[in-house]
Amino acid sequence: MMKNRFYTIYAFLIIFFGLIYSCLTAYNYIERYDVLKNVNENLTNTYFFKKEGGTPTFWYEANKIKEDIVIKSFFASGNKYEFKYLPSRLVYLYYYLINEEIIIQDNLTKEKVFKTNNGKLGLIIIQNILYFFSLFYLYKTLHNKYSDQNIFAIYSILLFLSFEPTINQWNRVLYSESIFFSIQIITLSILIGYNKDSSYKEIIFIGVLLSLMYLQRTLSIYYFVFVVLYFYLFFKKKFIINILILLTIYSITHIYLGFCNYNRDGKFYFIPILAKEDMYGYFIPKIIKYHKDRDFVSKFETRHDKLNNFVYNNNLNSENEINIEDRLKIADQNFEESLNLIIDYPLASLKEYGYSILHYALLKPNELHYLFENNIKYKGKFYQSLEFQNEKILKIAYSIIVYIISIIGLLDLMINKEKKIIFILICSILYFSLPTVWHKQSSYLAPVLIYISFFFGFGVAKIFEKIKLKMYV
Questions:
Q1: Which of 225, 265, 285, 442 is the most buried (most CB within 10 A)?
Q2: Cα–Cα distance for residue pair 61/58, rounded to 1 Å
Q3: Residues 6+ positions from 82 with CB-CB distance below 8 Å
Q4: Of the candidates 285, 282, 286, 259, the residue with the CA atom closest to the CA atom of residue 270
Q5: Maximum alpha-carbon separation in the chain
Q6: Is this model's pTM higher than 0.70 or not?
Q7: Residue 405: CA atoms inside 13 Å, Cβ hemisphere, count?
Q8: How many CB atoms are located within 10 Å of the residue 67 CB?
Q9: Do 329 and 363 belong to one domain?
Q10: Which of 302, 327, 358 is the last residue of a domain?
Q11: CA–CA separation, 86 and 430 (whole Å)
Q12: Average pLDDT value over all residues in the chain
């Protein structure tokens, strides 16, 4: 009993110091970058750098919701359902509760800018408390499952998830990743801890969490398929009832989304627009150079080109004025063109996909620094900077070490026939990586590292076990 208490205290200290470090680093970012500067002749709040995946788009939407609520219902507020549903609404709710503005008009330039000094640290603290609560919940789950025999592996997992910079840099800024990590970890904890004696209450929690994962990050839309498969393979006794509960909750979520979209746009739909365009926007430009028709290449329109041309040709003021039928038609066309180009150039697509995997898998522990400084110091091209290029060798070495240790952990789990945890971890890694490898930024790799951390933790434990054995031989 006393030993268990000490184990819990050690775990709590790891998590607590991780929380303090993240909050202090986040405070430093706010102090340094939550300021208004003239960047490219525009007054800009430098805290909100542009990144793949839409930020600060959902902050703009949060402000729009704030304005819409005055004349519309909550369900009809916001933009067309282009990507993530939940982040903008969480930002809106926070600023509604603290009665602060999100965007203001500058007195001198009359430009609309993100307000500085408006309680961002409070939102940072909330998301970090949620993240580190999820880690403590994970510790309790793993300790109940493995008891004291794998305590070193559990501590290694906690250390990785509390301090690994590629993951934790996203806990220190106000983007959508941190809350998504928390939902991932709690969902995984319940799945790992689930057994034949578990109650239906846990299935209900899983259903709610899967819905929240989807609302927070639309890539998660089909993740429930692997959860269903997990229950089918390992828990057949309650399978039918479990799946009915999951599907009911998940269906209600999609009906709710469709209802909101219908109220706002006049059309019932629940698949986000950009989900159909992600490949066209980020992967197709990599293979278009292989097209044999040079005229086609020269006339190729990017996603933004198509929208801008549609706005111009139809005498609109902005893409926000494109009606939902036309917007969905453009998205469907982009998706169809993407598939056709990949089918027409399969070898080139595989080649570029392979290159993308290498870039994607590279751990980038200090990428946030470059993103903050991108427009300030690097003129929007930090990837080409000498400083960034000189760090590549260190990042490659760091990545190789992490992946080798993780492979050792995977092999150890295979030897010990931990089929359930291996299945859900491998499925999760593949699901969240394969459709996003054309993205370079670490915000797309970080959710995958959540699952890799388990292999890493068991790998570290195995290495130390071997070292300890040699010391006593």
A1: 442
A2: 5
A3: 272, 273, 274
A4: 259
A5: 81
A6: yes
A7: 23
A8: 12
A9: no
A10: 358
A11: 24
A12: 91
Q: Are residues 292 and 403 in the same domain?
A: no
How many angstroms separate the CA atoms of 284 and 406, rounded? 32
Strands 103-105 and 112-114 turn out to be antiparallel
Do 419 and 324 have their domain in common? no
> How many domains does the structure of the chain reveal?
2
SS (H, E, C) 254-300: HHHHHHHHHHHHCCCCCCCHHHHCHHHHHCHHHHHHHCCCHHHHHHC
pLDDT for position 448: 98
Note whether 185 and 104 are same-domain residues.
yes
Given a contact cutoff of 8 angstroms between Cβ atoms, the answer to whether 50 and 119 are in contact is no
Q: Average pLDDT in the 357-380 region?
A: 84
Q: Which tokens is 88 given?
A: 């903008």
Pair 95, 207 in one domain: yes
Q: Are residues 217 and 94 in the same domain?
A: yes
The predicted-structure confidence for 156-205, as pLDDT tens digits, reads as follows 999 999 999 999 999 999 988 999 999 999 999 999 999 988 999 999 99
129 plus 193 within the same structural domain: yes
Relative to beta strand 42-45, strand 36-39 is: antiparallel
Among 291, 325, 358, the domain boundary falls at 358
Give the span between the Cα atoms of 377 and 426, in whole angstroms.
39
Prior bond to 165 cis, omega within 30?
A: no
Q: Are residues 127 and 218 in the same domain?
A: yes
Q: Which range (44-53, 89-98, 245-254) has the least confidence?
A: 44-53
**pLDDT tens digits, one per residue of 22-66:** 999 999 999 999 999 887 778 889 898 877 655 578 899 999 999
Domain range holding 348? Answer: 273-358
Closest by Cα among 45, 50, 27, 48 to 35: 45
